[in-house]
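User: For my dataset I need records formatted as: sequence, then structure tokens, nothing else. Please produce one.
Assistant:
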Amino acid sequence: MYKKLALLLLITALSLGSLLAQEEPEAEAEAVTSDYSSLEEVTTDSPTADIGLDAVDDSMDDSADDVAPVSGIDTVTEPTMTDTYPSTSTAATTTTVAKTYFDGVNTYANSRVQFKLHTSDNFLADKLIYTINDAGENDYLSPFSIPDEGRHNIKYWGVDSIGNVETPKVFTIYIDNTAPESIVTLEKPVYEIGGKYYISETNSISISTRDAMSGVNNVQYSVNGTDFTGYSTSFNLTTEGDLDFRVRSEDNVSNISEEFRVYLPDESGTPASMTKSSLSFYVDKTAPTVDITADRPFIERKGKKVAGTDYIYTINANDTESGVREILYRIDGTGAFRKYDGTFTLPTNGDHFIEAQAIDNVGNKSEIVILSIFVDVIPPSSGITVVEEELVTE
């Protein structure tokens, strides 16, 4: 009887020891992950649904321990900071927060996101094992991140103290460290002087943005270098003067780029392509001035400016901003305006008028200036009269 009592006491002591040993690792695991807050739990179906089976009741019973551990995976964030990751695009990528995104099919994350594994067992879990892309088994000790872009498979499973091995689970994640690429295009030609790009207020600006992985979240632009506005459709810059134009694009996992590719067409329509983080625009809303002059004063007669056939006419234009691109003119309203390329004369007799217009380098047109002239080519008609002296009688 004493032997049976001693055996019963020994079994009871072993049972209590197993319960205490089972509770301590759970507390230790909680201490390991207490510095991290769970962003969202992810699975192959949804990033917010639990992974694996419900936890098994860990109360003691008389059955043998033949139940494998049940494991899961969470994504966790870390304190906000700024860093730059290798990028496949030409634009510099800045990632400021850990973030995941589920598009209904795939789960995306940036390299700041960490993955936290957890497991439970009806008696006592021993360890968690995981692999990334089947590259080798690792004992799970603390949350980990994946630095390399692309698709990755995290395979993980638990093992209990008896040696029961859980059927491995696989979680697929797409790591996206590359910010979107933005392309700025202008509808009309621009004119560059000393690194400053002159445009008119009628020049429409468009921004197209693409992202190869998680997709574009938002695109913004600024005309003063600091205050950004959400882009939705093409727009015009209507405030005259110097502008500091910038673009900022962000994808769905918080990769941000402040660089953009811009296509600036010249006068011929050929676009010059370059990558910029800012552009110095000058909105030129002022048209040129133009005037027509002769090489000598006119003779004013009967309200008309009278000139001879040897008068030489010059057309001058001036623009204080983007500069004069061309001068157009025509005589007597005949035909289309043609490009002015030098001085000219009016050789035929009668009333004439000269029209002139100037266009600056961003397309602003002056008012049409008109000079009316009467050209006199008819020489005087002379004659002679004989005057007889009259006799004077005193």
